[in-house]
Design a protein that fits this description.
With 280 residues, this protein is mostly helical. It has one domain (30-279). Helix content is 71%, strand content 0%. The protein has ten helices and no strands. The protein has helices at 30-51, 58-65, 71-92, 99-118, 125-149, 159-176, 180-187, 194-218, 224-248, 253-279. The chain is globular, with a radius of gyration of 18 Å.
Length: 280
C-alpha cells in the first residue's frame, strides 16, 4: 500500500518518510509507524526525565521529533503529553518549590506567550533556536566563571530580571517548547536545593503549558489525529516522569547542578548547530 502524503523531515539528509495519519489515527504503513515511534518514544522519555527534575532535557525532545514530522505538528503532539507529565510532577514536588520565583516568573511568562501567539506566523523558529542556544552556552560559561571566582549565590534576584527571563521562557516555550534555558538563567544562580529547583521548574512550566492551551487551540493545532498520537505516548510519559523524580531524590546538590550545566551546554550546542544549519 503506497503512502498518501509522507511527512518531510526537517533535516533533508534524513528521510524517515512517515505516513500521514488516517481517520482511525494509524499511520498508513507499519514501517512508517515504527520509524515514528522509534523517534517519539526516546523524545518522550527525555521529556519525562526533564519533568522529573532534570530540567533542560526537554529541549532535546523537539529537535528529535522534528526529524520525523514538522516542528509545528511536533509541538502540537507534545503539549498534551507535557500537561499529563505536569500532573505527575506537580504532585511529586507539591511541597518543594520557591513561591517567590513563581510569583515573579509566571505572570511574566504570560507576556512571552502572548508575544509568541501574536508573532507565530512571523517568527523564524530557527532564529529562536539560535538565540536560545547562544544564551545557554554563554550562561554555562558564566556559571563556571562565577564558581571559579568564588562569587556568592544570589539569594533574592531582582524582579526586572525575573520579568525579562520569565517573558523569554514563555516566548521560547510557546514557539518551540524550549523555555528551560531562560528559566535556568534566572533560577540556577540562586543555588536552590535540587528538589526545590526541580519543584520550582515543575510548577512554572505546568502553569506555562496550561496558559499555552488556548492560543494553541486558536491556532488550530489540536486535530483529532494529533491528539490520538499524544494519547498513545502518555504511558511512556508517565513512567519516565516517575523515573526522573526517583533520580532527583538520589542525586546530591553538587552532582545535580553539574549534570544540569552539562545538559544545558549540550542543548545550547545542539540548538545553535541546528539553527545555523537551517539559516546559512
Amino acid at each position: 500500500m503506497s503512502p498518501r502524503r509522507p511527512f518531510k523531515a526537517t533535516t533533508p539528509r534524513l528521510n524517515l518518510r512517515l505516513m500521514s495519519l488516517s481517520g482511525a489515527g494509524k499511520f498508513g504503513a507499519m514501517s512508517g509507524e515504527l520509524e515514528f515511534y522509534l523517534v517519539a518514544i526516546p523524545a518522550v522519555v527525555l521529556l519525562g526525565l526533564s519533568k522529573g527534575g532534570f530540567t533542560g532535557l526537554s529541549s532535546l525532545a523537539m529537535p528529535m521529533l522534528s526529524l520525523a514530522i514538522s516542528p509545528v505538528r511536533a509541538a502540537a503532539i507534545v503539549l498534551p503529553v507535557l500537561i499529563v507529565q505536569d500532573w505527575v510532577s506537580v504532585w511529586a514536588f507539591r511541597r518543594d518549590f520557591s513561591p517567590r520565583n513563581l510569583v515573579i516568573l509566571i505572570p511574566s511568562s504570560i507576556l512571552g506567550i502572548a508575544a509568541g501567539w501574536l508573532l507565530a506566523a512571523r517568527v523564524s523558529e530557527d532564529a529562536v533556536r539560535l538565540a536560545v542556544g547562544v544564551i545557554s552556552i554563554v550562561f554555562v560559561f558564566y556559571m563556571l566563571l562565577r564558581d571559579r571566582l568564588g562569587l556568592a549565590a544570589v539569594d533574592r534576584p531582582g524582579v526586572p530580571g525575573g520579568v525579562l527571563w520569565g517573558s523569554l521562557a514563555g516566548f521560547t516555550s510557546f514557539i518551540s517548547h524550549a523555555g528551560a534555558p531562560p528559566f535556568q538563567v534566572y533560577v540556577m544562580p540562586q543555588n536552590l536545593k535540587p528538589r526545590v529547583f526541580a519543584g520550582t521548574a515543575t510548577m512554572f512550566f505546568a502553569a506555562v503549558n496550561l496558559i499555552k492551551l488556548p492560543p494553541y487551540f486558536l491556532l488550530g493545532q489540536f486535530s483529532r489525529d494529533n491528539v490520538k498520537v499524544s494519547a498513545a505516548l502518555i504511558p511512556v510519559a508517565v513512567v519516565s516522569t516517575f523515573a526522573g523524580v526517583w533520580l532527583v531524590r538520589r542525586v546530591d546538590a553538587d552532582k545535580f547542578y553539574a549534570i544540569i550545566l552539562v545538559i544545558t551546554f549540550l542543548i545550547g550546542l545542539k540548538l545553535t548547530y541546528d539553527a545555523l544549519q537551517a539559516l546559512l
